[in-house]
Amino acid sequence: xxxxxxxxxxxxxxxxxxxxxxxxxxxxxxxGGLAFGTGRDADIQLAxxxxxxxxxxxxxxxxxxxxxxxxRTGSQVNGKYFERHPLVIGDLLQFGEADFFVFDGFALxxxxxxxxxxxxxxxxxxxxxxxxxxILQSASFDARPGQFxxxxxxxxxxxxxxxxxxxxxxxxxxGTILLDGQDLRRIESPSSYFGYVPQQEIVHxxxxxRQALHYSALLRLPRRTPRREMEKLITALTGxxxxxxxxxxxxxxxxxxxxxxxxxxxxxxxxxxxxxxDEPTSGLDPESETELMQQLQELSYTGCTVVCxxxxxxxxxLTSSLEVVMAGRDSQGRPTPGRTxxxxxxxxxxxxxxxxTLSKLYHQLKEATPExxxxxxxxxxxxxxxxxxxxxxxxxxxxxxxxxxxxxxPVPILLARQWRILRSDWKNLFLLIGQPVLIAGLIAMAxxxxxxxxxxxxxxxxxxxxxxxxxxxxxxxRERSIFRREQFVGLGxxxxxxxxxxxxxxxxxxxxxxxxxxxxxxxxxxxGAAFWQFAGLAASAAAATGxxxxxxxxxxxxxxxxxxxxxxxxxxxxxAGFVFPVRDWDEHPVPRIASRLFPSFAAQRVMDxxxxxxxxxxxxxxxxxxxxxxxxxxxxxxVLLNPNQSLVIPVDESIIYDPPGEGMxxxxxxxxxxxxxxxxxxxPRYVTDxxxxxxPRVLRHARPALAGLAALALWTLVSCGFALLMLRxxxxxx
Length: 734
Hints:
This protein is α+β, with helices and mostly antiparallel strands.
């Protein structure tokens, strides 16, 4: 039951701590149970002397843990008194006025006076570059712990920019942002304090609400969190936000309000002290808007500081404080940067702007400049909106560094989610399976004949490149808003990209296998070495997946990514060295050099080797294009084995062919002469019917194939590296 006290982490400087069995700790493990109180037998010593010797107990039950109140003065969970309460991740236990603990699924963490944090900002300048100039100028903000703050203002005033600046997602050129009185730039991992629901959806529409929350919990909660506690947390959150009856409904079928509440649930999984929402009521009907705002108000009562932007005024009276941002016009009619012109309760806003209802506020704002409203606010309240806000009453709060809970390795979780998304839509799954079947059938139907394997393999390689690039091209760009949000809570760009590459690479690899098997065993089949053929297709699948991910990371939207795929694939056909053989470019250095830069060229060299692999020189002559393409890799010596055959076959000169008759040397001057125009290739002067190969040697030249596979691997690495760079640049706001 007991964990060795020496294994418990000591409290960090400035971090909240508690006395657990005589030792100051920052984490209290829960095993068989715990006792809270002021008596000597209590496991956790409470500071308030008015509390009972045993104020409360935590007991292990079948469903997890329950806290039982045994004191005479009462204890609270999430601000409410209780007798017996099942613990859920994020529950805040309060004993008296000084002892607060948070349950994280497997342990208790001491915290200071609740979970909420205060956030203040003043003198905020945000530049939009040379084209836009300043977006915000000397803007300010003030949110106290447990408040529900609304940021309102006309469109284009800078509400979203202010919100993103407070989150650290938008760089500021001047000003200071304070989290509980500490400079945000000096706080380690400030994003761990914030939950953020952007305007774009942050859940996969193909998943059910339960599945979306399950995978989000796996990514956000500590690795040691029991699955049972995760399920309890999901049930509690969805019950609070009215989604419990929709847990098994696909997210894409939820209404706008339900989908927005699901996004809020995702953010609340990690119980952030501050929750930011950007236009959460946008696009909702009036009833859904009111319901969502009421739920956000109730959320603030639990101690979480809630901040949201909105331009709808019907329900802003539910907020505990308003921040009004507006932009004016200069003497030439050009827009000026946004400024904060009001801060306070909704009732005070009606009085200061002299409106009966807040719905008339926007019209009233147009009657004067931002500077006028700032002066009026100063006259009415005695406070300045351009100077630092006064500190909150009471002793100063100190925000301890966030506890670094080790999370699960994300790649298996992301792969499991990707597979769940893939099989959630049977039509897409059918298309993924049907594409290679249809393509292989068409190739087998069109490329007929005994020696058509070279055409089949060329078309198969191009098809795999097209399929892989097409599969991966939409992947990153369509999930960009989801990835940005998950990166904000700790998901790295590399594991995310790795999961996408492995997932889409496996899909394309299976398509390549299906395509190859059909071509191999349908119709006339495939001639040549199957090992090299499938190796070339598999390497092409990996390179195509990397190329598609690079396109997806670079594109601005899904349509742009899809339209780029044909632009990338068409040159693969032209420069593969099959439609236009390599020897055709001997006198043209530009296409000869350019062809080496295409994955299809490398794939085609592997296919060329597969066609002549293990064949005698005479049999290999059936694939003249393959042999001619390989001549640059081989030391060309030509021999003609069959009478009246005009094919010049490049072979390794170490292979010796003996004539049947003594003294007859096929390499001698009598039978062959040098052709200077063909770079030392010997061509026959004459041949007799007796000239034949007495000791047939087979062609096993792996070097061109290995070079092709290495080139495809290099393409894969370069493409994925570019995709990783683009992911990091875009997420850095560049």
